[in-house]
Amino acid sequence: xxxPASRPLPLAGVRILAVEQYGAGPFxxxxxxxxxxxxxxxxxxxxxxxxxxxxxxxxxxPGDSHFFQTFNRNKKSITLDLKHPAGMEAFRTLAREADAVxxxxxxxxxxxxxxxxxxxxxxNPRIVCAHLSAYGRSGSRTAWPGYDYLMQAEAGxxxxxxxxxxxxxxxxxxxxxxxxxxxxxxxxxxxxxxxRSTGVGMEVDTSLFDVALHNLNYPGTWYLNxxxxxxxxxxxxxxxxxxxxxxxxxxxxxxxMCNKEKFWGLLVSLIGKTEWNNDPDFATFATRLxxxxxxxxxxxxALMEKSTDEWMAIFAGKVPASPVYxxxxxxxxxxxxxxxxxxxxxxxxxxxxxxxxxxxxIGGVELPHVAAPKMGADTDATxxxxxxxxxxxxxxxxxxxxxx
Length: 404
Prior knowledge:
- By secondary structure, this protein is α/β, with parallel strands linked by helices.
- Helix content is 37%, strand content 15%.
């Protein structure tokens, strides 16, 4: 019987060929690699490999950017020119023993490169082919390139972000890339579960545009059923709940979210304003929303009597509240250390790259902390395991199919 101490990683034994680069696709497979899947990056050495290797401005070494490390830890890398017949033959050989292929290419390229289920089912009928593109593999935009910020603009996100009197604003992070990568990983795993049960693989598709649109979520439902166009609110306020926004303190800002009625009573008690409970303008979410400007002014006046840290000590565990941190403060937060939220990912030479740890915790298992590989670091070993002899690998290298 397997004990928690000896339990294997949850995705041990899952093998994925990743024809990926930059952010969205590699982020999705990084979840899988962190959880123990064998993720084999396919990099075209003739194009310099994953473009993310050169995304600066910060580097651990040549071809080893901080950006690349973030998205590619715990993976393997092989070089392979898929446009060369011998390269595609090698890829098909690897696909025989793989559970899935994930690509994040322009929508028209998987079919052109023969990375679809129809192209690979003859060598492996249970393979799952997951595709992450900008605008999907069907429709009028199949061949369009696309990036995160474009999706934020067209899917309405920028119209919801920022102050009402300011320009449309993007998020400070590439959230559409990150969420689409996660959606692709989720779809891929769903396909693998089905294929292992039925013996038949499938196509799985997602796109930056589709995920961005899906993330409109309840404002989308409001419009589709009530015709309501949600707009920006001052201080990042919730569209219908008050108080649920930024408020001023003596030395900065605090975000309060009294998203249940009980929290209003707790809040006014903790700030010493219990008389506000007798004001009919503040009696319910609906009345507080009608008088939001007054609520904001009164809370600002009260909260500016103490610092953010002082209020956090008073509200802790009672009223949902958060300080507003910059990136450094966020990472140096003592609670991050308490949660083991950062980890060192080791290089073969003993050096390490410090990064944010996986948000998924598995009882009785320590997730791997291996730095992203050099381009092609696992080429020979991976091909040898697939049955290639040293002489055959030498021919591939001489022909430029794999890197020298």
